[in-house]
């Protein structure tokens, strides 16, 4: 009968084909793990408060229109609130997809290009979303003040 050697979990012995890190230093993955937990908690608070204010207060979902958003974004608190949701949600999601890419993309080149596209899209959405939040003008150019919400 042949004997098979079983390696105890977390014994530190990793098959070389699964060890992608070239250096043994740095705490980036630990910081990314911690960021996922903390940003997830903050996002739960931000999103549920956002849903409560938008869907349950006053007229509820029937009151959401262009004027509602214009009135909300006239207040810097709501601008910051929505900005925090945008940034945290995008960075949280990007970190999650980065982890999936690292887990499932076998080739270094594939992993590089997938993460390059991911980071480019993340930066583009964060920049565009931030611009929308801070440059939003409820008055259509050329309209009179009476037509502004």
From TrEMBL:
SUPFAM superfamilies: Fumarate reductase respiratory complex transmembrane subunits. It is found in: Membrane. It comes from the Bacteria. The chain crosses the membrane at residues 30-53, 73-91, 112-136. Keywords: Heme, Iron, Membrane, Metal-binding, Transmembrane, Transmembrane helix. InterPro entries: SQR/QFR_C/D, SuccDH_FuR_B_TM-su. Its main location: membrane. This is Succinate dehydrogenase hydrophobic membrane anchor subunit. It comes from Arthrobacter halodurans. The lineage of its organism: Bacteria, Bacillati, Actinomycetota, Actinomycetes, Micrococcales.
């Amino acid at each position: 009968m042949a004997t098979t050697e079983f390696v105890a979990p977390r014994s530190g012995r990793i098959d070389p084909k699964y060890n992608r890190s070239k250096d043994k230093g740095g705490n980036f993955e630990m910081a990314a793990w911690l960021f996922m937990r903390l940003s997830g908690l903050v996002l739960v608070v931000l999103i549920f408060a956002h849903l409560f204010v938008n869907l349950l207060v006053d007229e509820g979902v029937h009151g959401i229109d262009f004027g509602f958003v214009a009135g909300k974004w006239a207040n810097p608190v709501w601008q910051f609130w929505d900005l925090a949701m945008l940034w945290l949600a995008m960075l949280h999601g990007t970190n999650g997809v980065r982890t999936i890419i690292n887990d499932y993309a076998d080739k270094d080149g594939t992993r590089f290009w997938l993460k390059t596209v991911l980071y480019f899209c993340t930066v583009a959405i964060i920049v565009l979303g931030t611009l929308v939040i801070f440059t939003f003008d409820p008055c259509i150019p050329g309209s009179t003040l009476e037509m502004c919400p």
